[in-house]
Amino acid sequence: MQLHQRFAASMAASQPEATLALAAAAETVGASVRTDLLLTDSVLLQAQAPWRITLMAVLGSVLAGGALYVLGALLGGLGALPLLANLGLGPLIGNIQAGMHSYAPLLVLAAGVATAPFAALMLLTGLLGAAPLWLLPVAVLARGVRYGLLAWLLWRGGTRFRDWLARYYHGLTLVVALGLLLLAVSLLLLKYL
Fold first, then answer.
1. What digits encode the pLDDT tens for the residues 10-42?
2. Rounded to a whole number, what is the largest CA-CA distance in the chain?
């Protein structure tokens, strides 16, 4: 949690928007930062500009997701897929890759509500070579829903919602994202079976 405290101190000093973008990027790649808590404090302290602050969190997270996509593409280019195929996973990877090429935006939209599924799916789409042009607007929309809903609730309710959101929002978004992913995968399986 020490990294989170550094970001919180940096936000109080200067440039809260840039710091929030960096915190969102760090959280997306797996650092122990809670961007939702930082965003909560920023929205409550700067009530006149909650959407600008939210946009910076969205952009930081999407850029980190793009970096994970590029990392996955590099791993794919270095031979990770043939290595997995040699381990006997070739047919499974082929089926996942065919589905990913067709439905990656839907899956990213479902996973983007929470951070961990979003990061894992961006890495997987890069590894399997899904088209990045379709993923960018969907990633912005999904991350915008995650951070925008939080900012809107705080903007409308002020400090009444702060403690509840600090306690439950992160877990709630994870449950919603996993539920949406399960629904999307189930619909895909019904279509192909």
1. 776 667 788 888 889 999 898 888 888 888 878
2. 57
**Residue listed under structure tokens 């919180």:** 8
Best CA proximity match to 57, nearest among 85, 94, 16: 16
Q: Tell which residue, 6, 13, 14, 16, has the closest CA to residue 40.
A: 16
Question: With left for phi above 0 and alpha for psi between -120 and 50, is residue 34 left, alpha or beta?
Answer: beta
**CA–CA distances in Å: residue 13 to residues 16, 39, 44, 61:** 8, 15, 16, 22
Closest-CA residue to 99 (of 28, 176, 190, 178): 190
Helix, strand, coil percentages, rounded to 5, for the chain? 90, 0, 10
pTM of the complete model = 0.84
Q: What is the pLDDT of residues 136-158, one digit of tens each?
A: 888 899 899 889 888 888 887 77
Placement of tokens 């399960």 in the chain: 182
Using CA atoms, how far apart are residues 64 and 79, in angstroms rounded to an integer?
Answer: 23
Distance CA 126, CA 140 (A): 17
